[in-house]
Amino acid sequence: MQYTTCAPFYLAQPSVEAIEKLSDQKGDDGLTPTERVLGVADHIGRTGERGFTIIELIVVVTIISILSSLAAGAYNKVVNDAKKANADALVSTLATAKTAFATDPSTSPIEIQQFNSAPDASFASIAPYIRVNGVQPASEDDLRKLDGLPANASIALGTVDDSRLGGSNADQAPTVTFTHARH
Q: Closest Cα to residue 97, out of 58, 137, 61, 63?
C-alpha cells in the first residue's frame, strides 16, 4: 500500500491490484462489492468525470441566454402586432362613425362645421355611432378602456368632408398613436 500525507493524518490508498482483487471477491449473495453499490463500478478508474466542466456550463448558459433573447424579441413583436391590429380596428370604427355622423339626415350643417372646427374635442358628436363590445363609450377615455388601449394611446378624429356644404375641409382619417415614455 502507498501512503499519502494529508495534514497530520496518513491515509492509505489502495493500489490498482488491491481494487481488482476486492472487485473479484464475491459475497454470500454472489455479487462483488462494486456490483452491490450502484454507480461505484461506473466511477472506478474515471473519478475526474463526476460533474460538468466549467466550459460545458458556460456553453449551456450561453445557449439558454441566446434562446431567451430570441423568445423575448418574438414575444415583443407579437404584442406590438396585436396593438397595431387593435388600433387599426379602432381607426376603422371611428371612420365608420364619422361617416355615419356626416350622412345622418338629422345632422345639421352647423353640427358638421362645429365638428370640423375642433374634431378632437367633438367626440360626443360621433359617440352615438360607436359601439365597442356592444357598449357606447361616453368619452375618449372610456373608448380606450373598452377597446383595451393603454393610457398612452392618443386618438385623433380628423375632419369630415364638408365640401357639399360649402366648406373647405377634406375628409381626414382618424389616427391612433402610441407614445412611449423614455426612462
A: 137
Separation of alpha carbons 71 and 128, rounded Å: 43
Rounded to 5 degrees, φ, ψ at 45 are: 90, -10
**Can you give the length of the chain in residues?**
183
- Rounded CA-CA distance 124/141 in Å is 12
CA distance 128 to 136: 7
Per-residue pLDDT tens digits for 84-129: 998 899 999 999 999 999 889 998 888 888 888 888 888 888 999 9
Residue type, 175: T
Cα 89 to Cα 70, 85, 140, 147: the distances in Å are 29, 6, 15, 10
Do 23 and 32 contact (CB within 8 A), yes or no? yes
Sequence-separated (6 or more) residues with CB below 8 Å from residue 91 = 173, 174, 175, 176
- For the whole model, what pTM was predicted? 0.61
